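ingest -> validate -> predict -> emit
validate: passed (alphabet ok, no gaps, 436 aa)
predict: started
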Amino acid sequence: MQKTKSRRLNITFESEIDDQQPQRSKTKKDDTGTTSGGSKGSIWEFIAIASVPLVLVLGNSMLVPILPELQEQLGVSKFQSSLIITLFSFTAGIFIPVSGYLSDRFSRKGIMIPSLIVYGAAGILAGFGAVWKSYTIVIIARAIQGLGAAGTASIAMALAGDLYKGGTESKVLGLTEASNGTGKVVSPIIGSLLALIVWYAAFFAFPAFCLLSLLAVMFLLKEPKKEQPAPKLKPYLHKIGTILKEKGRWLITAFFTGSLALFILFGVLFYLSDILEEPPYQIDGVMKGLVLAIPLLGMVVTSYTTGSNIKKNGTLMRWLMNIGMTLMVISLGTCIFFLGKNLYVLIGLLTLSSIGTGLLLPCLNTMITGSVEKEERGMITSIYNSLRFLGVAFGPPLFSWMMDMSHQIVFITVTILAFITLGLVFFLIKPEGKVS
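emit:
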């Protein structure tokens, strides 16, 4: 009996929530027309939610193909150019938990709307910094963008958990991950195409995408009313501490796993962006963007398919997470033997690794979002997204540092990290039955 109770503390099941809150009706409709028991929602709501992570990743990944040109135009080093990605992601990672608390304290849209405005406006400032060839202005603007980004994707994930339940929630969360991945696929291509006009055009482009997402959030999403009064900071933090104490064994492992997956993904993007322009490949321009998009396309298709089919099935999620991590270990480890030899094989292996990421992330998203009630969801998803951003932040500079030593060291290191994480996922994340 004690063993069963302990297991239920690790993963929250539907029955557990029902026992704690018998007064909640499973078919009660909220102001959006959705039901807490699991509405199918509307396609326009799905698009509005998915637009937020899409815009977020466009603001980062569109710049990856132009980093070599930025180095030349601004007269900076490879490490300094990597900070264009890193500082943005690091600032966002630090402030995401603050945005998460504010979204729980007040409202999701009340945080997302001003965040999107700041995000787009700072993008324009970064563009002018590039025009003036001022690395300092570009870096400052990217830090401000990070502040805006802190109130976007993680809050959209929490809002999806508020609006939908059951299989619909899993599908929408899979769609947000696929949207995130789609942004990663198209952004290198868009960035390369824009660079044909002028190398800094990408800085000015994504504020336009940001405006479209802002309008979608404002007019297509209707946030449900809070079921409980807004939490004060001290009891709120106490609740979060209790959740981490009860479920931290698997929850912290899930946070770390998501962070590592994006650390590897963005590190590999930076690695490819750098080596493709050098002998023996000498691929640049739009063709380079297309090559960078291939591994990401594998992740997008897999993410959406996974999110559409897991339907809160804990046993299936466990299988898919372990298969995904295994694919990452095998493919990244095999890359060690093909560096500088066969580009087709190298891209194929990196695509296989991205497919593993696509199996992993929608499962983690669903489990983390469903692990807590709505009143604490903003903070929990924000901690998760904060660590994901930090993974993105440290990917390019650490890959740059390792590349200066040896390309083999890059893949030996990430293979070891992926193998350790596979062990953690296998032994510590064990969803069973139907995850709430």
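Confidence is low (pLDDT under 50) at residues 1-38.
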